[in-house]
Amino acid sequence: MNKEEKRDLMLEIKEEILQNSKLPLYKERKKNKVFPVIGEGSHSAKIMFIGEAPGKNEAATGRPFCGASGKFLDKLLAHAGIKRDDVYITNIVKDRPPANRDPFPDEIEAYAPYLDRQIDIIRPKIIATLGRFSMVYIMEKFGLEDRLDAISKIHGRSFEAKAPFGKIIITPLYHPAVAIYNPHAQEELKKDFLVLKKFAD
Ligand code: URA
Description:
By secondary structure, this protein is an alpha/beta fold. It has one domain (3-200): Uracil-DNA glycosylase-like domain (Uracil-DNA Glycosylase, subunit E, 3-Layer(aba) Sandwich). The protein contains 9 helices and 6 strands. A 6-stranded mixed sheet has the order 1-3-2-4-6-5, sandwiched between helices. Strand 5 (159-163) and strand 6 form a beta hairpin. Bound molecules: uracil. Residues 37, 51-55, 58, 64-65, 69, 91, 177 line the site of uracil.
């Protein structure tokens, strides 16, 4: 797939999300006059980060990880020598859940097909999940349900799986928001990010 084809497919996804009034958080988006967060970065990224759902700043701007957890994510990327422009960053749920509550299973189910299409467009070498919601979804999607465990046990590990486009590595990471007030998680995240370094362009 060339650059233009990838861009067009991503635009289709964006248009569908903007217009799909059946999405569980569509009404909430309209009521608050905010944006869905589709994703940002290189469409041919080797590293794809998948978070949970947009927060307040993200829904206000339409950009993923641009608030407090985004600042920490930027530090982690810099620590590992990875440029934000070279990776692709998105979430499972593309609209902000009210009051930043955890996403409901039906929300994950409704938005996940868009994420699946984004993965097939980008064809990353490695998916780094941020937090347990994307960890569970992605590990199950790639047939790694037997390897699922508490995030405190499996963060930073590399699980090999098969994608329709070839071999893929899944690496669960703590969510950067957890690390803001938790120095232990901060240190673990810093160490884990070094695993991603070898996939950097
Ligand atoms: N937390 C997430 O999971 N995603 C964002 O985009 C921002 C905060």
